[in-house]
Structures are given as structure tokens and as C-alpha cells.
Write a structure and sequence with these properties.
370 residues, 9 strands, 20 helices, 49% helix
């Protein structure tokens, strides 16, 4: 990293493009050039490194391709060798989350033996399972009706551990996920979670990863969902930052919104230029003040009272920021949705994940009925 930092320092023209919309850089400097000069002789502090949301905006905005996120990610990995440092930033909560997420109590798989799509598995992701077991299973029921034989896996991709820089532990979790998918015979994963999408795409390139929203654009929405929201109040569309470079997902989500008939507007910074919602990089855990400031800032960049996203963590962040966060899947698969998510505590979310796991466990293989 030392040679890259030296190259960054020489290239930086101090235009501050990297700072516009960043949740954290303004908290540590008014000059990225001076910050890079400092990094040539000393590493970023742990406080600075764990304030990075890993959203990728700085690198996208920089005319010189300087990637502060890469510098801070490398620093996190170094700091992760000392677990006492990680504990200062809430790693105990991450360990609890990850051990629980990979336990039999909250994770499971279901493979089906007949059908054209037995090589596929739907992976809803942690946040969606925590939010609504019924929504997860409405989505999966529809996928089964269109993609016979598709299986389902309730499992974490290990992103929370990776975001804390503990790559050794992340590789263990990711290996477990890959083993579970292999046991299912799943060579293609369909995911509703943007973090799962990027994690599998990056760290398991032998597995084909498909966005649920792109699949829905291909197979079509349920007839009952079309034009359902044509009379709804206008919402703003927030693109999640993990998939900022996934142009096909951006396009497909907008196609789905058009088919729903939902009136919506774009944020000024959208698609590749989208901003972090405030929950990226485990920021709410490591720097709660910065996270909530970013949530309020992003939510108030639109006059719309409701903000729709295709990431459950983003939807929750927009609600915490003072607006009404809505998940796109509720608009498609929940005809009784009151256009507002109910706030849920930590225990309720874990209960939801357990309930979702039980629903999956109870699914019957169609072949066993014959």
C-alpha cells in the first residue's frame, strides 16, 4: 500500500471532489492532499479507518482515480490483527451477529430435486429475513412458480466481518457459505441483497450471481402488482452503494418501478454517483454519530416523504434519517402493505429470522408428494 499512497499523494490536485457526499472525510481534514502527505509517513489512525463506510464514492468522483477507501480498508485489515482494537469499534456485536447468522438456529437450506432450475438458489440476505419472513416467502413462492426446482438458502455472506477488516474470519464464513451452496448443487445464486451480490461476485467468481431485481424484470411481475401504485404519492429512489457500478440492476429496478406505475423521482446523486445511506462499512456500529448524520443528510436530499430502495438496510436508514423508508419488494409482493415499515427492535428481528428459517425448514419437496 505504501507505493500506492505515494502515487496518490503525487497525483492529488486537492480539488476535494472525493469529499462531496463522503460521510467522514470532512471530519478529519479540509485537504485530501495534506491527508495523503501525512499517510506517506504514518498510517491512518484506527478512528479514521473505521469511519470509512467503504461506499466507493471517493474513488468514483476523483479525477485522478485516488481511492481513499482502499487505503482505509488496508488499514482496517492491519488493525484487525489486534482484537483489542476491534473491540473498541463494536466487534463483539459483529461476532455475535456472525456466529448466530451461521448457526443452525438462524440458517438453513432447502434443495428441491425436480425442475428446470435445481441449479439455482434464492438467497434473501440477513436484513430482509430480519425484516419480514412473510415477504421472503412470498418472493420465494413466486420464484418457485416461475423457476421450478429453485432452492433457498438463509445464510449470511460474511460482509459484517469483512467490513471490520478480519479477513481470516471472513474467509472461514465465506467458505462455509460456499460449502452449503455446493451441497445444494447450486451453481447460480439469486439474491435480494446488494452486499451478498457483491460479496459472492468478488469472492466466489465460480458461482453465477443474479440480482433478484434483474430476474424479476426477466420473468415479469405478478399480474396483480402491475399498475398497483399508480395513485400512490411520489417517492424518491435511492440506489444502494454496494452495486454502484451494476448498471443492469439500476436499469432493471427502474423498469420494475415503471411496471408498478409508481410515481418516483431520482436523487441528484443516483446510480454510479449514489451516496451511502449511513449503514455502509458497519458505520452505525463503529461511528454512530457519523452514521446518523449521513442518514439524515441523505434522507433530506429529497422533498419526498417516502424513499424507496432495493436494499432493506438502506430502507431502514432512510427511516432513521427522518423519512419513510420503503422496500421495493413490499410494493410488489405485499398487497396489504400500508406504505410504511413498522419499526422493529433487535429481539424481534432475530425472532423474524428464526421464523423465516422455520418456514424454509417446513417446505416440502414436490417430488416427495408423488
Amino acid at each position: 500500500m505504501e507505493s500506492e499512497i505515494n502515487a496518490y499523494e503525487k497525483a492529488c490536485v486537492d480539488c476535494r471532489s472525493c469529499m462531496k457526499g463522503c460521510p467522514m472525510l470532512y471530519s478529519f481534514t479540509i485537504s485530501p492532499k495534506k491527508l495523503l502527505t501525512k499517510f506517506t509517513t504514518e498510517l491512518p489512525t484506527s478512528d479514521m479507518a473505521f469511519a470509512c463506510a467503504n461506499c466507493g464514492l471517493c474513488a468514483h468522483m476523483c479525477p485522478q482515480d485516488i481511492d481513499f477507501g482502499k487505503v482505509f480498508t488496508a488499514s482496517k485489515t492491519t488493525f484487525a490483527d489486534d482484537k483489542n482494537v476491534l473491540k473498541k469499534y463494536g466487534y463483539g456485536a459483529v461476532i455475535f451477529h456472525q456466529k448466530s447468522s451461521f448457526s443452525r438456529l438462524f440458517s438453513t437450506t432447502k434443495k428441491f430435486t425436480t425442475g428446470e432450475y435445481t441449479h439455482m438458489a434464492f438467497m434473501p440476505g440477513c436484513a430482509l429475513s430480519s425484516y419480514s419472513p412473510s415477504l421472503v416467502h412470498s418472493v420465494f413462492s413466486y420464484l418457485r412458480s416461475k423457476c421450478s426446482g429453485i432452492g433457498i438458502i438463509q445464510q449470511c455472506c460474511g460482509t459484517p466481518t469483512r467490513m471490520m477488516g478480519d479477513m481470516a474470519q471472513f474467509k472461514m464464513y465465506h467458505s462455509q457459505l460456499e460449502r452449503d451452496l455446493e451441497k445444494m448443487g447450486a451453481t447460480t445464486v439469486v439474491t435480494a441483497c446488494e452486499n451478498c451480490f457483491m460479496s459472492i461476485k468478488t469472492y466466489a467468481p465460480h458461482i453465477k450471481i443474479v440480482s433478484l431485481y434483474s430476474l424479476l424484470e426477466q420473468i415479469g411481475l405478478p399480474e396483480s402488482a402491475k399498475e398497483r401504485h399508480k395513485n400512490a404519492p411520489k417517492m424518491a429512489l435511492h440506489d444502494p452503494c454496494p452495486t454502484r457500478y451494476e448498471k443492469e440492476i439500476h436499469k432493471d429496478v427502474r423498469t420494475l418501478l415503471a411496471q408498478l406505475g409508481l410515481p418516483y423521482e431520482e436523487f441528484k446523486q443516483n446510480r454510479e454517483k449514489t451516496l451511502c445511506c449511513g449503514s455502509g462499512g458497519m458505520l452505525e456500529l463503529t461511528h454512530s454519530g457519523l452514521a446518523h448524520e449521513q442518514m439524515r443528510s441523505r434522507a433530506n436530499q429529497t422533498a419526498c416523504e417516502s424513499i424507496v430502495s432495493y436494499c432493506q438496510s438502506c430502507a431502514e436508514s432512510m427511516s432513521k434519517g427522518g423519512k419513510n423508508g420503503v422496500h421495493l419488494l413490499d410494493l410488489i409482493f405485499n398487497p396489504d402493505f400500508a406504505m410504511k415499515q413498522e419499526a422493529q427492535g433487535v429481539l424481534k428481528k432475530w425472532y423474524n429470522r428464526f421464523s423465516s428459517r422455520q418456514k424454509i425448514h417446513a417446505l416440502k419437496d414436490d417430488a416427495s408428494k408423488r
